[in-house]
Amino acid sequence: MTLPDLDTPYRGGFLGREHRFALTVYFEDTDTAGIVYYANYLKFMERARSDMLRAVGVDQKAAMDAAQGVYAVAEANIRYLRPAKLGDDLLVVSTVEQVRAASVLIHQRVMRGTEQLTDARVTAAFLTMDGRPTRQPREWVDVFKRIMGGEGA
């Protein structure tokens, strides 16, 4: 039996076009009734998007450090379908739907087993360090197109 590497953070991964990121609902994620606070779904989805970019080799920190640009959420549309609760194991499923010169549209669903809890579409714009939209690096656009084709990481 191989023991897991307990010192390495969890990483999600691709299954076809879908990036999957698993997490558990902790006490800090909930209100006093043990129901996930609505804004925390946005945090769950942010972690999943960041992990998806990391999985395909998009180094956001290096781009920021080189003053190349940064991603920022320009728009988020979310429907809350059912509540998650303390102790639930969730899966954030992310799919790239559209790539433009300066942005990417990502469809994200938070799932509890086969039950869909949220449905969201998030537009991440690529911005200069002073906040103006700018073209994404060409290699990143190519990566997003590859993901849309089902090639994943």
From TrEMBL:
InterPro entries listed in its UniProt record: 4-hydroxybenzoyl-CoA_TE, HotDog_dom_sf, Thioestr_dom, YbgC/YbaW
Alphabetical keyword list: Hydrolase
Pfam families attached to this UniProt entry: 4HBT
Domain Thioesterase residues, every copy: 34-116
Domain of life: Bacteria
Record keyword DNA repair present: no
Keyword Protease annotated: no
PANTHER family per the UniProt record, alphabetical: 4-HYDROXYBENZOYL-COA THIOESTERASE FAMILY MEMBER, ACYL-COA THIOESTER HYDROLASE YBGC
Family the entry assigns: Belongs to the 4-hydroxybenzoyl-CoA thioesterase family.
This protein's name: Acyl-CoA thioesterase
